[in-house]
Prior knowledge:
Elements: H1 8-19, E1 35-39, E2 45-50, E3 53-64, E4 75-82, H2 97-112, E5 122-124, E6 128-140, H3 145-159, E7 161-162, E8 165-168, E9 171-174, E10 183-184, E11 192-198, E12 207-208, H4 212-217, E13 220-226, E14 232-239, H5 245-276
Parallel strand pairs: 4-6
Antiparallel strand pairs: 1-2, 2-3, 3-6, 5-6, 7-10, 8-9, 11-12, 11-13, 13-14
Helix pairs in contact: 2-3
Amino acid sequence: MRPPSPSIPEKEFVYEALKQSLRLDGRNHLDARTPTLDFRQELGWVECGYGKTRVIAYVEAKMTKPPPERPLEGIITIHSEISPMASADYEPGRPSEEEVTITRMLDKILRRSDAIDKESLCVVAGQRVWHLRLTVHCLADAGNMLDCACLAGIVAFKHFRKPEVEVIGDEVIVHSPLERSPVPLAIHHMPFCVTFAFFPDPSIRPVLDPSLLEQRLSTGLMSIALNAQREICVLQKAGGVPIPAEDVLRLIDIAVTVAKDLDKFVEKRLREDWGSRKIEVV
């Protein structure tokens, strides 16, 4: 179902406020909402929030046989779902356009960018590899679900631990967490997605981390996926608003600063979570 268009007074009010670098939630045009990360007892389960936008991501692992064309690599699949609980604009059983976009972008950002070392998921070449499945559930849509889902996805991989595996001859033994400590995934880098919204009036500057109303009033979005080392993984521009090259470079510099801040925030929250867990050695 197509979401209802904002009313004319809403449009005029938001546009006039944006011309003065004011936003309805009090942020500056280059201010992002403060992210939140909550962990459960299960490893690899994360709830991420960008303001009122809420996303849950969790990772599951199982042993499987690799495809013959890639016998030395594990398998990573990503699935996202936006239920009607997130917004009345989404219908059950029918993937929306935004849901398809989020799934494709997560696949590009997290899987195709080689953020996770797939060869480290191989147990026995051509016979047994780990199959990781990332599931993302969007619980509430208050704008910019893509950035929130990307953050939840990479943190879920970082938080996840796979069981210790021992190979004796042709026998593969998977040890339970009670027998041996689970092993973290080999992660090459941590990409983060940063989204900017553009508006029809050229006097309105692009806004970072658009809210739902700003997203609906925008005429184009540009999402930049990059890590703290200034390596760009994906740059996607949705919408027909022309952007000069110098503006793109300026927004990339802003996205680098945001990615560095997110990297520090994620490491801090992971240390706090591990510090709160009790580890018993028998």
